[in-house]
Amino acid sequence: MNNKFLTIHRQEAGYRPIHDRIHDFGEVEQTLNSKDRRTQASRCMDCGVPFCHWACPLGNKPPEWNDALSKGDYETAYRLLNDTNDFPEFTGRICPALCEKACVLNLMSHEPTTNRENEAAITEMAFQENLVHVVQPVRNGRRVAVIGAGPAGLVAANRLNRMGYAVTVFERCENAGGLLRYGIPNFKLNKAIIDRRLHLLYEEGIDFRYGEDIDLTSLPEGYDAYVVSTGTPTARDLPVPGRELRGVHFALDMLSQQNRILAGTDFKKDELVNARDKDVLVIGGGDTGSDCIGTAHRQGCRSVTQIEIMPKPPVGPDDPHNPWPNYPRTFKTTSSHEEGCTRRWNVNTLEFIGKDGRLTGVKVQEIKWKPNPDGGRPIMEPAGKPEVIKCELALLAMGFVKPEMPQFADNVFTAGDAATGASLVVRAMAGGRKAAADIDNYLNATNK
Ligand SMILES: Cc1cc2nc3c(=O)[nH]c(=O)nc-3n(C[C@H](O)[C@H](O)[C@H](O)COP(=O)(O)OP(=O)(O)OC[C@H]3O[C@@H](n4cnc5c(N)ncnc54)[C@H](O)[C@@H]3O)c2cc1C
Ligand code: SF4
Predict the structure, then answer these.
(1) What pLDDT does residue 2 have?
(2) pLDDT value at position 448?
(3) Gap from CA of 84 to ligand 2 centroid (Å)
(4) Which atom of ligand 1 is nearest to the CA of 153?
(5) What's the CATH fold of domain 143-233+402-445?
(6) In sequence order, what E strands does 148-241 have?
């Protein structure tokens, strides 16, 4: 058994220094040199019962590809990785690495193998070394429509295309990627990475139709089956007084606009959602809120505060009240938080305050949570006096509403966030893969 983990410590590539990264939208994460990367891969113990396989929603097999990577065999490493993960260049950058939380080295010593970074490194090497090839599938004469070109739809389209189906992807935006392109900031995922993969999908014969907003109660005709992977387009709102003031926006209004600006789209001055010279309040303590913080910094904000209605999560690698194998909901500091931000918890929003129709502040109040005697959701009680946080831009980052789907025919399969509610890229990709397999089984069973 490999025991290098006893002498070699986990080494993360880390982020570019703040002073270097804060003025541009380039990816913040750095890369290790190939020698150090192989050394990191050699730490994997190849456990008899690898919990990482089970923890990864795609069933990725880190011990297998870590072994090949440690030997410098990038071809085998990429083949093993790509067997289960259609687009490891996405997950290698932005996956919260559920596998690393389950890694035995994490459970033992909080020093899991660097699977996510290894995954990105294998994939970049595979592209560099021309190991990623275009495949021309043998067609089976059947047609499938995919509605929505986010990670779920792209994986479904890729898998079905390779099985021989003629795949048409209908996407309402002007380009593919879903939230990878129009949500997640470029400093986490450079959009050239999506384009590189899309070119392969175009060459392999998938037909992408952009600007097509499909009515889900009347799907396009002429297809043997359908994947509906339309995500969760509706953000949770905050209907308190003053919501209509100028300067109160959904997080995605800012994030998607910024990504479009970086892609060369022009916006009129009065359409811009920009933090320049403003005090910014982000309402919602999750990842979308964190992306707003990093974006506000790069736009030149004066200050950023992030408030969250729930209590501060436990600090430390483990939460004794939520032990493994549950996902550790512990305190997280992202690269955007590192760049500067006041963070507060147990804070409720009461009112948006403005002057001449423009936001000038947000009235908030500290609260506490009491156990519900009936065992239901804890009860919120005021714990402080109302106060006003001065801001000229407030961003609502409080999650997304799970969409209601129409009653579909048997040949329609849902995938990704549309099926599960807002989740993660890796789960959406796993959903896309399952929808492709279900369609193949369905069409073969019904002999259509
Ligand atoms: C700001 C932000 C940051 C995030 N960061 C991370 C992260 O770091 N790591 C992570 O794992 N996850 C992250 N997520 C979550 C992740 O992006 C989503 O879980 C994932 O993108 C869901 O994929 P999907 O394909 O189901 O849906 P989406 O990515 O939402 O794609 C749905 C697609 O369907 C299209 N569509 C919708 N309706 C129609 C229609 N009627 N007709 C045609 N097309 C339609 C949309 O335009 C879109 O392109 C983040 C989410 C947000 C909002
Ligand atoms: S996709 Fe995420 S959970 Fe799966 S192996 Fe990669 S980093 Fe780990």
Answers:
(1) 63
(2) 62
(3) 10
(4) 25
(5) FAD/NAD(P)-binding domain (3.50.50)
(6) 166-171, 207-210, 225-228
